[in-house]
Write a structure and sequence with these properties.
- The structure holds 2 protein chains of 2 kinds.
- Chain A is of the alpha/beta class.
- Chain A is built from 8 helices and 8 strands.
- Chain A has a 7-stranded parallel beta sheet with strand order 4-3-5-2-6-7-8, sandwiched between helices.
- In chain A, strand 7, helix 7 and strand 8 form a beta-alpha-beta unit.
- Chain B is of the alpha+beta class.
- Chain B has a single domain, classed as 2-Layer Sandwich (hypothetical protein PF0899 fold).
- Classes of the chains: A alpha/beta, B alpha+beta.
């Protein structure tokens, strides 16, 4: 005779551990007065170049650091460090995303007392990074024009968790059938609160408006 | 690819709940997964079989229920389920409003588990 099966109630969210670490990290950032920005996109949408442009625009106002996540390379961190910006490379070792404890570990390598803003360059991937709270104060995603205006239909979660959508490479618009208005409608249905900025990290077009938004967010978080 | 980490969390949580409950074996685990979460069921089961070897949860079956995506119309307050494939064209079935908010359809939740 086999033992009777019993039911044990668990009722627990699987991301509860990560959510707690993320919350502790936000607390630490508030104490240190350091704003943490999580930047996500697919591969090749222009994350590194957007980071460099953004820092160029705001470096006389804030002290920046960068946390670079890559599956297995250091090229992006080298590019950023070459500009005299503190950069830490996190090799995720095959992991497709960053979670809050990986970010917390990366921040240990930066002197937060000397930094106002740290930008996380998340792993290039439109799926997995959207699932994990990194502990950032704000999350921003980039969609570049060559990727197409249909991406909100294919990767809805990323669009729902982002505070800002940067539509990058608008200098390619003339060459493509990308429908900016259709994109806007699709994105706003998923996330009515999202801010959308059209930029070209290459030419600098539109970067000022995006940088002004970031600047306001940073000031309201760190004070002053 | 994030399935591996999620699977590890599932295993840690169920083993924690089984501890001290006089459990000989975990037979089945009931999970609720939001439809917005890209998760391949077969990979989770696969990873789970690998990670759980030698634990109380070895050979446990993962029973996954999908929680539907629910949107709420900001204009009239009506909640509805647009279906994942129709998300981009979604509008309120009552007033045709298009300012919509996501009420549920995200995340992963362990409901309960069957043990002997």
């Amino acid at each position: 005779m086999s033992d009777p099966v019993r039911l044990i109630e668990v009722r627990e969210a699987i991301h509860a551990d990560n959510a707690r670490v993320a919350q502790e990290l936000r607390q630490r950032l508030a104490e240190k007065k350091t704003f943490l920005l999580n930047l996500m996109s697919g591969p090749g949408a222009g994350k590194t170049r957007t980071i460099l442009r953004t820092i160029d625009e705001l470096r006389d106002r804030f002290r920046f650091g960068v946390l670079e996540a890559d599956i297995d390379s250091t090229v992006d961190a080298e590019l950023i460090a070459a500009r005299g910006i503190s950069a830490v490379q996190l090799r995720t070792g095959g992991f497709c995303h960053l979670d809050a404890s990986m970010v917390a570990k990366g921040l240990d390598a930066l002197d937060l007392d000397a930094l106002d803003v740290v930008i996380i360059e998340n792993v290039g991937n439109l799926v997995c990074p959207a699932e994990f709270d990194t502990g950032a104060i704000r999350s921003v995603m980039i969609l570049s024009v060559p990727e197409g205006d249909d991406k909100p239909l294919k990767y809805p979660l990323m669009f729902t968790v982002s505070d800002v959508l940067l539509v990058n490479k608008v200098d390619y618009l003339a060459l493509s059938d990308f429908d900016g208005e259709a994109l806007r409608q699709r994105v706003l249905k998923l996330n009515p609160r999202i801010q959308i900025f059209d930029i070209s990290a290459k030419t600098g077009q539109g970067v000022e408006a995006w940088a002004a938004w970031l600047s306001r967010e940073v000031r309201s978080f760190i004070g002053g | 690819m994030h399935e591996l980490q999620i699977t590890e969390s599932i295993l840690n949580i169920v083993l924690r709940h089984a501890a001290g409950q006089d459990v000989a074996k975990i037979v089945r685990i009931h999970l609720r997964v939001g439809e917005l979460s890209d998760l391949a069921d077969e990979w989770i089961q696969h990873y789970f079989a690998y990670l759980s070897r030698g634990t109380l949860a070895q050979d446990a079956e993962l029973a996954i229920t999908r929680a539907p995506i629910v949107l709420r119309c900001a204009a009239c307050g009506r909640s509805f389920e647009p279906g994942k494939d129709r998300l981009g064209e979604a509008k309120c079935p009552v007033c045709a409003g298009t300012r919509l908010e996501l009420v549920s359809g995200r995340g992963y939740f362990i409901e309960n588990m069957e043990v002997v």
